[in-house]
Design a protein that fits this description.
alpha+beta, Alpha-Beta Plaits, 10-stranded mixed beta sheet, globular, tRNA pseudouridine synthase A
Length: 262
């Protein structure tokens, strides 16, 4: 018996999230089916985290136990031939038996993408939130930094969260702007990529943070209102939950396991 750890990228547009759901059609379902077809086992894979319906991933990590003798480096190609085209295994390695992709993870990074140009990108529209009206991007970036630290994030968690403890640590936030598609002398503001890294995230936490930042960009809140929203520990104090399609799990980090850079 050995423990195999893999990384997978997926376009979540047509899936009900990563983790198996009663309604089926999840990324986990397709991965387990592909593994079973390949080696004749019925695996139970463990993902590094859940993603909601419509959310994407670059570098999602999962692991499972297997008796198969297939060398680790041959698994990605073998599985990709059995997976839908919007799910791609990008790496595999043997890990210690005690390794667990979720419990062993030290921090995770998510990216949320807003197209702040006047017109939507017809090719990437399913992975971006298009905001045609002008945004105060500087205010959004200032507000984003207020989330760094260890706080009770009840205000930024789904009302249906089943976690007993809502304290989480946000380690870093940053904004990168891609101006490559902006048109000269127009109101285009570029493609805004918001990155957030933490030791863990609550259900809908990143999307609620982004919904709140959008309101800041629209002038509905000042950047310095964020600390008060956090301190309120009341979901109604924060902004709406932003759409899922613009969110991507961007990477999972471990102390002793290294994955090839994306």
């Amino acid at each position: 018996m050995r423990n195999l750890c893999m990384t997978v990228n997926y376009d979540g547009s047509r899936y009900n999230g990563f983790q198996t759901q009663p309604d089926g059609n999840t990324v986990q379902d397709h991965l387990e089916k592909a593994i079973a077809t390949l080696v004749g086992e019925k695996p139970k894979i463990h993902g590094s985290g859940r993603t909601d319906a419509g959310v994407h991933a670059v570098g999602q990590v999962f692991n499972f136990m297997t008796d198969s003798p297939i060398p680790a480096d041959r698994w990605p190609l073998a599985l990709n031939g059995r997976l839908p085209r919007d799910i791609v295994v990008t790496g595999a390695q043997n890990v210690p038996l005690e390794f667990h992709s979720r419990r062993s993870a030290k921090r995770k990074t998510y990216r949320y993408t807003i197209n702040a140009n006047q017109y939507a990108d017809v090719f990437l529209r399913h992975m971006q939130l298009h905001h045609p009206a002008r945004l105060n991007v500087q205010a959004m970036e200032e507000a984003f930094h207020h989330f760094v630290g260890t706080y009770d994030f009840t205000s930024f968690a789904s009302r249906y969260s089943q976690k007993q403890n809502h304290v989480r640590t946000v380690l870093e936030t940053r904004l990168e702007i891609d101006y490559s598609q902006t048109r000269p002398h127009t109101r285009d503001q570029g493609i805004l990529h918001f990155y957030i890294t933490g030791n863990g995230f609550l259900q809908h936490m990143v999307r609620i943070i982004m919904g709140t930042l959008i309101q800041v960009g629209e002038g509905k809140h000042k950047p310095d209102a964020i600390p008060g929203m956090i301190a309120a520990c009341d979901r109604s104090a924060a902004g709406p939950t932003a759409v899922s399609k613009a969110l991507t799990m961007w990477g999972v980090h471990y102390d002793d396991i290294n994955f090839q850079d994306k």
